[in-house]
Specification:
This protein has 503 residues and is of the alpha/beta class. The protein has helices at residues 35-38, 84-98, 109-112, 123-138, 154-160, 167-182, 198-201, 228-255, 277-300, 307-314, 324-330, 350-355, 379-393, 418-436, 485-495, and strands spanning 15-17, 20-22, 28-32, 102-106, 142-148, 189-193, 260-266, 269-272, 335-339, 343-346, 397-401, 410-411, 414-415, 441-447, 467-469, 481-483. Strands 3-4-5-6-7-9-11-14 form an eight-stranded parallel β-barrel, surrounded by five helices. Strands 1-2 form a two-stranded antiparallel ribbon. The longest helix has 28 residues, at 228-255.
């Protein structure tokens, strides 16, 4: 573009000068949680059981287990978590002290409809979230609500095997229309499904699809082994979620035309392990089927061109009924939100893959370091993903999860977590570069802004927060909240709207 160009670009951009970076006005700085990982109070005030309540705790090497009957010798971390349900006021005050502009949280379906298909909503659940939203607004914090974040009603899993059954769509839409009506003046930004694509990456069908598992153990990384009947169940389950999302969007627009809806995709950045064309194509293919398979439906309103070939390879049959495709076309989202933690490598050589397995069917990248949980740290991958995604969809993007799970140590009443600051700084700088490339990014919400239960392992010691919570994996601790060093760093960053990033 020539220097004299008079074109005004509509999207937000970051200006950088001697004083540092200047993010656009209204950029959403903040943090994110999910109710099953922080609230606890799993059976309080009329709440029903969700699938998350049936997962035991695990470790990096010991997978979590899903047990239908509660095992009296096991721990179920969602049952108490960090007691955010009763301490939300203290926690939101801490977020406000950091200057949060946005707080992403989920409404637990089973607090509103304990069995998923109840006739009437549970008033105590509705009252609880109203108080939370009112408090956010008192501090000028905009809530961003995930309607489904691994909180599927267990009763519906038993009845219909979760999203495998189309009847689940009506139940979900009843839930979403109830909360949209209830909070129409308090919540403007909504995400229908958290990380809708993870079952295609090997995330297992229970967490996000509410399907009862074939084995108790929650194992990750089997995306490349997905095939046949299980694949059929999963692609149809996701199809039902697409339909439920589209109906929610259409209902929501009637309730409040100001509402903004986002999809939420777990970004899967996969580089070729080598420049062999076979490796390049494997990397390309994994990205197509894990990112664009869902993104295309939710943003463009239609299945991606490669879908037929992909389903054939999966040995899966997708059941599309009359009216489905029209509905998907109408109920598209307004923005694209994503989680980003790591990247991986694609290889056509099974021996290389098996010798170097990273997370989610990819091989380890020899050029990258990893977190203590083996997630390979790659800020540049975030720029790559934002640019690719913006180039494909041209809708605003929002980073609604990014952060470092680490083993923190309390010293002198705080945590010196310079390693976390380094991780966050480098990722935010990658966002700046993507915005400089032209990507339109609405905000940055750090995942697990207060220490919460880890989704993949159920541990407390995999900590992400700016705020430390005094609780260990055995359940000991006072639950006291401590500000880590990163707390003050993020506070300065938000106050300067990004210009103190290099500090
Ligand atoms: C995402 C989930 C979150 C969250 C995060 C970190 O996949 O949406 O719920 O937990 O990952 O993962 P973990 O808690 O396993 O470290």
């Amino acid at each position: 573009m020539s220097e004299n160009s008079t074109v005004t670009w509509p999207q937000r951009s970051v200006v950088s000068d001697a004083d540092g970076y200047h993010f656009p006005d209204g950029f959403f700085w903040g943090g994110a949680t999910a109710s099953n990982q922080c609230e606890g109070a799993w059976d309080k005030d009329g709440k029903g059981e969700s699938c998350a309540d049936h997962f035991t705790s695990g470790t990096k090497d010991e997978p979590r287990r899903f047990t239908g009957e509660f095992d009296p010798t096991a721990k179920y971390p969602s049952h108490d978590a960090i007691d955010h349900y009763d301490r939300y006021e203290e926690d939101i005050r801490l977020f406000a002290e950091m200057g949060f502009k946005m707080y992403r949280m989920s409404i637990n379906w089973t607090r509103i409809f304990p069995n998923g298909d109840d006739e009437k909503p549970n008033q105590a659940g509705l009252d609880h979230y109203r108080k939370v939203f009112e408090l956010c607004h008192e501090f000028g914090i905009e809530p961003l609500v995930t309607m489904s974040h691994y909180e599927f009603p267990y009763a519906l899993s038993l009845k219909w095997n979760g999203w495998e059954d189309r009847r689940t769509i009506d139940c979900f839409v009843r839930f979403t229309t109830t909360i949209m009506r209830e909070y129409k003046d308090l919540v403007k930004y909504w995400l229908t499904f958290n990380e809708i694509n993870t079952p295609l990456m090997g995330g297992g069908p229970t967490f996000s699809l509410g399907m009862l598992p074939e084995t108790e153990e929650l194992r990750f990384g089997k995306g490349d082994a997905l095939h046949g009947e299980e694949a059929t169940r999963i692609v149809n389950g996701i199809h039902h979620q697409f339909l439920a999302s589209a109906r929610t969007v259409l209902e929501g627009r009637k309730i409040n035309p100001e509402f903004k809806f986002g999809c939420m995709i777990a970004s899967n950045v996969v580089y070729p392990y080598s420049c062999k064309p076979e490796d390049v194509m494997v990397a390309w293919d994994i990205q197509q089927r894990t990112n664009y398979y869902c993104g295309d439906v939710m943003v463009r309103g239609e299945y991606a061109p490669f879908t037929e070939r992909y389903l054939r390879e999966l040995g899966a049959t997708l059941s599309i009924e009359p009216g489905d495709l029209e509905l998907l076309r109408e109920g598209t989202v307004d923005f694209y939100s994503l989680s980003y933690y790591m990247s991986g490598c694609g290889t056509a050589d099974k021996a290389v893959l098996n010798a170097n397995r990273s997370v989610f069917s990819t091989a380890k990248n020899p050029y990258l370091k990893a977190s203590e949980w083996g997630w390979q740290i790659d800020p540049e991958g975030l720029r790559y993903y934002l640019d690719e995604t913006y180039g494909r969809y041209k809708v605003p993007l929002m980073v609604v999860e990014n952060g470092l799970g680490a083993m923190d140590k309390v010293e002198d009443g705080t945590v010196h977590d310079g390693y976390r600051v380094d991780y966050l700084r480098e990722h935010i700088k990658a966002i700046v570069r993507a915005m400089d490339d032209g990507a339109d990014v609405l905000g940055y919400l750090m995942w697990g802004c207060i220490d919460i239960v880890s989704a993949s392992t159920g541990e407390m010691r995999k900590r992400y927060g700016f705020v430390y919570v005094d609780k260990d994996d055995e359940g000991n601790g006072t639950l006291a909240r401590l500000r880590k060093d990163s707390f003050w760093w993020y506070q300065r960053l938000i106050a300067s709207n990004g210009s103190s990033l290099e500090e």
